[in-house]
Specification:
Helices cover 67% and strands 3% of the residues. It has 389 residues and is mainly alpha-helical. The chain is globular. The relative contact order is 0.14.
């Protein structure tokens, strides 16, 4: 038996579960203290025309979430197997440092309402920390080209290309989570769904690498942010007692971007050269697109809507997806749960494609999408029926 410190050690599922639950418990306990701190320093969200809440609400919940992440990382660093996540990769430390910066920027915004360019500078700087620490995209599979018996080709990214792609992807995911944070429990719930799906995907990558210790960090990063979202959600679900603010939503986006980027660097593309393994080759890109499909769609629609109206992409309005669900006739809770359903169907559907038979998964996802679509339009159908009667 190979007893070398870098030797594969399988899937340390119990250690990952302990880390996730630690992040959840610490975040849950810290949130009450952060709520008092937010009120004391004046980090309070007062109702605006575009807002759904009607009473002043303390924010800066991201500080509690980051505290949960830090304690969970400390626990992982002292566990027999997961401690090696810190020995053979800088990815975990990069997530901690970049996460600390983005939480600081978000907390300042929660208190002082920073301008959009200042926040963007902070986001780019946090993404730059990841790149400087070696967390970046190095290659991806393209469906065109290829040789006889092989589908597509592996495209190697130059240093500058990989760094630019990583920064753009990270900033996009940060802003996507920030844009979707509009209803009680919405961002924390989507973060939980997305982080859990990412965690499952990262575990599958770890399994494909036969428990290689260098593949531990992405699953660890995803597990800690999933736990932080889980611990924060009871305080944030409608009726909320505290908002996560930009400090929380941007932290979720950054951690998800770090986990998926880190996992992509652990993919063994050379082991899946045939057409039957296309899904496996595309899996990092699929997961990136799927886990944040709902917030990214909201972000894209908002940018298009505002720029075509001659306004800044960061100009706030009341036309987000959750606002539209409320207009249709859904209650706040039902609208939030419905978006959870959409996010879960798409995110776990994409991850399942990398694990199970694609045809079966397609049928299941199709049924899930149909169910979500029917539930989405039920209030409008009822209103139409009432008018006709």
């Amino acid at each position: 038996m190979d007893n070398a410190p870098w030797a594969p050690a399988g899937l340390p599922a119990r250690e990952y579960l302990l880390v996730l639950l630690t992040a959840a418990a610490v975040t849950f306990l810290l949130t009450g203290l952060v709520r008092l701190l937010a009120i004391r320093v004046g980090a309070v969200a007062y109702p605006r025309v575009r807002d759904v809440h009607v009473t002043p609400m303390p924010r800066m919940g991201g500080i509690a979430m980051y505290g949960g992440v830090l304690v969970a990382m400390f626990v992982a660093a002292n566990l027999p197997v997961l401690s090696r996540s810190f020995d053979y990769s800088n990815d975990t430390v990069a997530a901690i440092v970049a996460g600390g910066l983005i939480v600081l920027v978000g907390a300042l915004d929660d208190r002082f309402e920073l301008d959009s360019l200042t926040k963007l500078a902070g986001q780019v700087t946090a993404a730059g920390i990841l790149v400087l620490s070696g967390v970046q995209w190095y290659m991806f599979w393209a469906p065109w080209g290829g040789t006889e018996g092989h589908t597509g080709q592996l495209m190697l990214l130059g240093s500058n290309q990989g760094q630019l792609l990583t920064v753009l992807l990270t900033v996009a995911m940060i802003n996507a989570m920030n844009f979707v944070d509009g209803l009680d429990g919405l961002a924390s719930g989507i973060g939980l769904v997305s982080a859990t799906a990412t965690f499952v995907f990262c575990l599958s990558v770890l399994n494909r690498q036969n428990g290689d210790v260098t593949a531990y960090p992405p699953a660890l990063i995803a597990a800690t942010i999933a736990g932080a979202c889980l611990g924060f959600l009871p305080h944030n679900f409608q009726p909320a007692k505290i908002f996560m603010g930009d400090s929380g939503s941007m932290l979720i986006g950054l951690m998800l971007a770090t986990a998926t980027t880190s996992a992509s660097g652990r993919m063994d593309y050379s082991s899946a050269p045939s057409a039957t393994d296309t899904i496996a080759l595309l899996s990092p890109l699929l997961v990136v697109a799927a886990v944040l499909f709902v917030p990214l769609l909201d972000l894209v629609l908002a940018v298009v809507r505002r720029t075509t109206a001659g306004k800044s992409p960061f100009h706030a309005d009341k036309m987000h997806l959750h606002h539209r669900l409320l207009e249709i006739g859904h209650s706040q809770r039902r609208a939030v749960l419905l978006i959870y359903l959409w996010a879960a169907v798409i995110a776990f559907g994409a991850v399942s494609l990398t694990l199970f038979n694609a045809v079966v998964v397609a049928w299941v996802v199709g049924l899930g999408v149909l169910l979500a679509a029917i539930i989405s339009v039920i209030p409008r159908m009822r209103a139409r029926a009432d008018r006709e009667s």
